[in-house]
Amino acid sequence: MKIIGKIVETEVPRFKHRWFGVLEVAYKKQRYRLYMSGTIAQWFIEGETVEVHTLNKGKKDKKTNTTILDFDDYEFYRLWKGERIKVWPVFTKEITHPRSDPLTGKILYEYKIKAREAVFESDFEAIASLEQYHYASKEEIVAIWRCEKCGKFIEANTRPTCPKCKSSKDVHILEIRGSTPASRFLVLELLERKPYEPKIVAYVRVDPPVPSMHRRIEENGKISVERNIREKVFEEDWFHPVFWPEKIAKEKMAKLRKEFGNRIAIRKIWEEVKWEALKQCETAVSRIARVVVHPDYRADGLGSLSAKIAVEWIAERAVPEMKKRKHMVEVIAQMARAHPFFEKIGFKYVWDTAGGRPVLYYPLTQKAREKLEFFLKNDKYASKHGGVLFRSRYGKVDVLKGPVEIVNMTKKYESELDLEKLPTELKELLRAFGVESRIIEQAVFRDANIKIESGEVVVVVGASGAGKTTLARLIIGAEKEYEKILKEKLSAEVFERLYKPDSGKIKLPENAKIAALIPGEIEPTFGDSTLLEKIYSITGDQYMAVEVLNKCGLADAILYRAKFSELSTGQKERAKLAVVLAEKPNLLVIDEFAAHLDVLTARRVARKINEICRQAGITLIAITHRPEVIDALSPDKILYVGYGTLIEQQR
Hints:
Blueprint: E1 2-11, E2 21-27, E3 30-36, H1 38-41, E4 49-54, E5 59-61, E6 66-69, E7 74-80, E8 83-88, E9 92-100, E10 107-117, H2 121-131, E11 143-147, E12 153-156, E13 171-176, E14 184-190, E15 200-207, E16 215-219, E17 222-226, H3 229-233, H4 245-260, H5 262-280, E18 285-293, H6 302-317, E19 328-332, H7 341-344, E20 348-353, E21 358-363, H8 366-378, H9 382-385, E22 404-417, H10 424-432, E23 438-452, E24 457-462, H11 468-477, H12 480-489, H13 492-499, E25 503-507, E26 514-517, H14 531-539, H15 542-551, H16 557-560, H17 569-582, E27 587-590, H18 599-616, E28 619-623, H19 627-633, E29 637-642, E30 645-650
Parallel strand pairs: 3-6, 18-19, 24-28, 24-29, 26-27, 27-28
Antiparallel strand pairs: 1-2, 1-4, 2-3, 4-7, 5-6, 7-8, 9-10, 10-14, 11-12, 11-13, 14-15, 15-18, 16-17, 16-20, 19-21, 20-21, 22-23, 22-25, 29-30
Helix pairs in contact: 4-5, 14-15, 14-17, 15-17, 18-19
């Protein structure tokens, strides 16, 4: 049944306003009470005309002649100045997000995801949990909660126990810090997940545009500011009237202060100001204010995916206000200098704000596209960058100028079996089994010949103790710089025994620059340095340091400022990879690759390191026994080690 009626009442409980609200619509002599989220209900004004389609009968209150429609009982459209915008059910989209081999395009694994607007209390609890990863301090409190039983407000990052009632049963989330009443939230939910995986892995916050914007100009060593730059490039009514409670409050304060004094005036206006600001807000631009991805899912394209779907949501539903159709999406993000995930989906860099933060726009209409292109082509400063902000500082390494060659290589190990120091009873027991003192000689490699071409990804497999780590050591010991380091650290005898072949040779190109990870033997040390400090100490470039951390899936301020000891096992593995990649080697040797990671994390890390090495031209030799890692690395060849042999198999 289709109803064109008028809103006669808006009810958004103050302490449930994110996740519960009610609109009452009058149609002829009947009323329809629509249950929805408070973030949507708060935007509607009493007296405006709306369209309702009833899908189910709902519950009938005969005394008041009111039909109560729950979340699943209706569709709802806003009719605003000639626009018909769908409001309810909320925006939902199911996506398959494949992760492919960067060389062959073969799908290695994929995510089944539902993107939808946050409507349930549990959604906002998940957002609060994720929001912790956006802040750079573990002391930062990201949410405010309220106990409905006693009315106490509590600051916490997850659902707390009420200190007065000694229970969390009646505690509900009230607000996400940093958001405004105008904020809308999109969450990404895993449809197929393991029991230990989180349900919601990312969220996007969408706000109205910032009230005003000025451009910072640096020229000939001097800094100047061009005021109100947006209105000069685009149309003024795209950005106004915006959600600006502070401006309304300032105007009202002047009047109320005269009548009531300062303290009473402040108390009187804030709740009133919020509602007035929501009613006034009517822009043709939306702003993506947050994109936060769970740390375990970084570097898997979920940041770009989240932003891309948010753009679709904005275009379809005109969020956050649901009034004017949107011409553009705005982003103001310092992170965009070091991470291109906005540019990957089509955002164009335009300028820096007066405070030095990059601004990017995504055009949604032809008119916006034309204005943006004209500006980027004709503006004195924008024409120099052409809409491009991120430029990789990592780029390509100085690729190996030839192959890694193993030529007629033999390596043997000797061990002496000596019973003399054992207790008498144990010596007798072993002799009963025929065990006597002797020297045991074992050939790890016998006349091995292998060639690894520059830029190849190679996996080494074999049984435990077969010689995989020995092969890694021998390759490392062949590089001049590592030979020098190891000789200073070890005795000449130990170096020869561990890092040099008995006969034959390992030939490396003259420009070989090795970085290596052998657990417990060759690993980076972090001390008390934060991750960013550690990587910056190697690169000497702050933006390259952030880029390297991003590449390794450590793309967040809270991780940049974390110490190694504060990281999870998976994050520690990525941090070690970040250190060796920061050195910009052209030959990377990793033993026991991803050995301590769960299957899903190991697969993600392997796929990403494969991508990084191929893009940068790094030759990778990875030792692993895990089939999911081998699959994600998609090697050019596999080397099998065992019983003195080294056998190559092309993929």
